[in-house]
Specification:
Elements lengths: L1 H47 L4 E2 L11 H4 L3 E8 L5 E7 L8 E12 L4 E10 L17 E8 L23 H8 L6 E8 L23 H27 L1
Parallel strand pairs: 1-2, 5-7
Antiparallel strand pairs: 2-4, 2-6, 3-4, 4-5, 6-7
Helix pairs in contact: 1-4
Length: about 250
């Protein structure tokens, strides 16, 4: 019986060692993620304070790392195709401007002076102002220069509603999909979106720009403490079992 008990403790000890190693690995992985997230937050904050640079043109697209360049201020001159704007369903819960609630982000293609096209997130409009005729004053008809933040495309969440191109209601932010629906050549459309800054002089105030949400969840320290705590708890439980067996 003593030999059988000793063998059981050895087997249990092997599982404890394996479990401890796994839990510690998860804890150290979260520490690495914490460092990565802190570096990301620092990089984005630094980029957003920079002066706007010309938006990357077609010659830069093949090697452009949109994720690394996200939130960088850019500027791009051109003319809006107001009749081809796309409406992305959006709920603005913490508006920086005077209007919030349920509505749409207006994505409008802008043809640059060089001929290529970039989709501009011009900002938020409430549901009852979705129709362009209800905000005609905010539709520039002359060439303009847009300043804003470079953003990477976002697909809709897999469990969310599907895009409705025919009804011009979108849940993804994909310039290639917008272009295909609007009859624009995808080869001439930039692989990113520009979130326009707020324009206080825009007649009517809509779309309401400057509503880019720049937040990053950073719970990695809590997760690391949890994994390390579970590892120590596992050792404590095993020690208690061994002491009880010896008695």
């Amino acid at each position: 019986m003593k030999k059988a008990g000793a063998r059981s403790l050895v087997v249990l000890g092997v599982f404890v060692v394996v479990g401890f190693a796994v839990l510690m690995s998860l804890g150290f992985w979260q520490v690495q993620r914490l460092q990565w997230k802190q570096d990301l937050i620092s990089r984005v904050a630094s980029q957003m304070e920079a002066e706007p640079m010309p938006a990357p043109g077609p010659e830069a697209w093949p090697t452009l790392d949109v994720t690394a360049e996200e939130y960088r201020p850019v500027m791009v001159p051109g003319r809006f195709f107001n009749d081809r704007e796309a409406h992305v369903v959006f709920t603005l819960t913490q508006p920086k401007g005077p209007i919030g609630g349920i509505g749409y982000m207006v994505m409008t293609p802008l043809q640059t002076d060089e001929g290529w096209i970039v989709y501009i997130n011009r900002g938020f409009v409430p549901r009852d102002r979705r129709d362009r005729q209800d905000r005609a004053g905010g539709l520039p008809q002359t060439p303009t220069t847009v300043e804003g933040l470079l953003r990477r495309p976002h697909q809709r969440v897999w469990f969310g509603p599907a895009d409705d191109p025919d009804g011009n209601e979108w849940f993804s932010r994909d310039p290639a999909a917008f272009a295909a629906s609007a009859g624009l050549s995808s080869k001439t459309v930039a692989p990113y979106i520009v979130d326009a800054f707020a324009d206080p002089e825009l007649p009517g105030g809509l779309p309401q720009g400057g509503e880019t949400v720049v937040t990053f969840s950073n719970n990695h320290l809590q997760y690391a403490v949890t994994w390390f705590g579970l590892a120590l708890a596992l050792l404590g439980v095993f020690a208690a079992v061994v002491l009880k067996a010896r008695r």
